[in-house]
Amino acid sequence: MNISIIIPALNEAANLPALLAQLAPLRERGAQLLVADGGSTDGSPELLADLAQWLPAPRGRARQMNAGAAQATREVLWFVHADSQLPEQADALISAALAGGQHCWGRFDLRISGRPWLLKVVAQLINWRSRLTGIATGDQGIFVLRSTFESMGGFADLPLMEDVELTARLRHISKPACIRERLTTSGRRWETRGLWRTIFLMWRLRWAYWRGVPIEQIAEAYL
After folding, report:
1. Phi and psi for 54 in degrees, rounded to 5?
2. What are the two backbone dihedrals, phi and then psi, of residue 202, each rounded to the nearest 5 degrees?
3. How is domain 3-189 classified at the CATH fold level?
């Protein structure tokens, strides 16, 4: 399956070179590489424009990913965060996961980089929760058939939890294909904000979301 890889970015010059280097072999194998830029001022669009197709997009992760999806031409959409490190042959893993028509979407298991050992526990809990609930987060590298994504209207225009909202809808169409090979995401959020503080904050925000607290209030608490 041919894949369009969509990366929402905003001032990610420190992370994008490594990710785009990892994605170069996939691009050579026919993947379309789209960076939906929300108005970076760090020079990344000019410095890295030869490594991917850059698209100006309205700021906001959901809006940026929708803008990238609108320009995608391949059969599968894969949404990847700029601070991700990918498993080898990720494109082949996605194609195998979607082959046969049993699944129309999926995600990878997660690893969180960083010094605190507890990040390994956090990642494992995220993976278990995802398998149990059928919900995925953007850090897990959500992929979906483009036809399915378009039929659902894409990501909801939310300032936060757009990944949870989308996958909650997707699970009613099919169970997620859960790839056990791990995609690594940066632990910078946990390390800079405090490990326990971030863990409790994320669980509190997720609980508030499921209770129906207005998303604007949740976004304010996150910031």
Report:
1. -95, 135
2. -65, -40
3. Spore Coat Polysaccharide Biosynthesis Protein SpsA; Chain A (3.90.550)
